[in-house]
Design a protein that fits this description.
5-stranded antiparallel sheet, 3 helices, elongated
């Protein structure tokens, strides 16, 4: 029973670390792979700002880890064949809880921003970027902005 308790605590720690890995950052946050890369800058006026939901790519990690942790925890209760039933129930409850925790931690609110460029880029003047809402970078319709385009993505910044 002691080994099972240690394993359960370990699984819970893994669940927390996996679900906390996603960092949406902000328009002013750069990843290491963006440092030193060439970026193009264009200027324009915001014509549309829409609220969107940004979902993490690893949306099922919490479900799997929660199921394992719940199953191991459930296995600690009951005896004989009842142990299998409590393990199965724990796995189901753990999966549901893990999924909800994963969604709460890894989903964020973003903006789909459309900008009318002052100059053309690849034959077009309209450019749309989806990015996390930046607390230090409020974007609104009619605002003059710059769009920074790099290999790792694009971002819209007020100027």
């Amino acid at each position: 029973m002691k080994a099972t308790s240690i394993l359960t605590i370990g699984c819970a720690a893994i669940a927390l670390s996996v679900t906390s890995c996603t960092n949406f950052g902000s328009p002013n946050t750069y990843n290491m792979n963006e440092i030193g890369g060439v970026q193009e800058t264009y200027y324009g006026t915001v014509t549309s700002v829409e609220t969107v939901k940004i979902q993490a790519n690893n949306a099922n990690a919490g479900t799997g880890v929660g199921a394992v942790a719940g199953g191991l925890t459930g296995a600690m209760f009951g005896g004989g064949n009842a142990k299998y039933a409590t393990a199965a129930g724990g796995a189901i409850i753990g999966a549901i809880a893990g999924n909800q925790i994963d969604k709460a931690v890894n989903n964020t609110t973003g903006q789909r921003i459309t900008v009318r460029l002052n100059q053309t880029r690849n034959g077009t003047r309209n450019y749309t970027v989806v990015q996390p809402v930046g607390k230090n970078n409020p974007i609104y319709v009619g605002q003059q902005v710059r769009i920074i385009i790099g290999n790792a993505g694009s971002r819209v910044l007020a100027y």
